[in-house]
Amino acid sequence: MATFVPHTPDDRARILRTLRAADGAQVLAEAIPPELLSTPRLDLPRGRSEQEVVAELADYARPGTLVAPERSFLGGGIYNHYRPAAVSALASRGEFLTAYTPYQPEVSQGTLQVVFEFQTLITQLTGMPVANASLYDGATALTEAVLMLDRAAQRGRKTGERARVVIARSVHPHYRRVLATYLKNLELDIVEVAWGADGRVAADRLADVLPGALAVAVQSPNFFGVIEDLDALSAAARKAGAHRIAVVNEPVSLGLLRPPGDFDFDVVAGEGQGFGIAPSFGGPALGLFATRETYLRQCPGRLVGQTEDRDGKRGFCLTLSTREQHIRRERATSNICTNQGHTVLQAAIFLTLLGRRGLRSLASVCAQRCEHARDAARAAGCELLFHGPSFNELALRIPGAHTASAMANLEQRLLAQGFAGGIRLAEAGYPELAGGLLMCTTEVNGEADIDGLFQEVRRWLS
After folding, report:
1. Quick one: angle between helices 447-461 and 341-379, nearest 10?
2. pTM (predicted TM-score)
3. Which of 10, 79, 348, 418 is at a distance of 20 to 30 A from 272, taking alpha carbons?
4. Domains contained in the chain, number
5. What would the pLDDT profile of 199-257 be if each residue is shown by its tens digit?
6. Structural domain that includes position 430
7. Residues 183 and 327 in one domain
8. Can you tell me the distance from the alpha carbon of 314 to that of 157, in angstroms, rounded to the nearest whole number?
9. 319, part of any domain
10. If you count DSSP H runs as helices and E runs as strands, how many of each does the chain have, helices first?
């Protein structure tokens, strides 16, 4: 444990010699009356985490103010994780907080090092050898993954011949809409595959559409929070000769689950907002993109490398930047024109602060809270829509809340008690799940808050 005393033992010995004292107690005895000295150990409470201290201070500030308790159970792709104070403090320093994009990148060694460190962290998390920066969000990362694989496969395809992209219907609805918009006028068709009773991709339906497909994209944990069997899905796609894309919408799950790279995926595309970036009403976000070395020169966005200068000192350089601003238009791999530098910085600081064990601990707490919410939902009489293993989110149906008016009534009841209860699945893009709610729990949702939410649900039902 750190003592936060700046003096070394040699410093203290020199001070005592100057004062002609045997020890610190003698110094205090000569300066302070004995009756004022406290000899017994102070009965102090145990040390608390930063998150606990901030929560207690918020409780002190709340009476007589308009500050509402943080009891949101909304997820659906944007997650409310605790952001250590150091993230904002460091990311807000003047040398970082700038709108300037370094068009002479080698001059901006600090910016390049941040991106390089971020890329290294993402390769470690995803199990892939190459990662880049500069993608807007998870939706564009998935789309760029499909376009990259299509570019790599076009050499063996006849002119005018259409290709199929198979995507799980449990992939985030916004991701699928962005993908459809990009591919609308290209020679690529999208085929969606439904889920099974457990909420996972139905293997039998996948087998029917795999032959001849260009690529398969699956999300794990998927939009409903269900963890997919990536090993089986990758093996089936590989057997059919299709490229494999793993989508990660909740990046904190990578602290607990095996990385997609272990299952022989070609690309990992996803969202990095969960890494220390505030929800902020839905943005800005951070696209994650990692792939094999085979596709290195087809990657969109920017990729920073490490090198040495002529004096042998470590330096960083913009190894690849395949956007239209930097190379001839016909050779550009994307028109992404941002480096997402500030969100990359926040994510890098967050991951560095937590470290490997810290991220695993965070993911474990999230998994435990999700399991607690599952038990509380059952106890309140709610129906779980899927029985597969889940992370952070639960899709459930509440008896008596099958109509829009009943659902609105329940939501108002919960809001009156300080709870933002969940996302309506029918309005999120799943009309077949009308009456269903998607509820999310992270480490900021304590067990008492989870129990309080479902107690309100139980009272509403009664």
Report:
1. 50
2. 0.86
3. 418
4. 2
5. 999 888 888 899 889 999 999 999 999 999 999 999 999 999 999 999 999 999 999 99
6. 52-83+356-461
7. yes
8. 43
9. yes
10. 13, 13
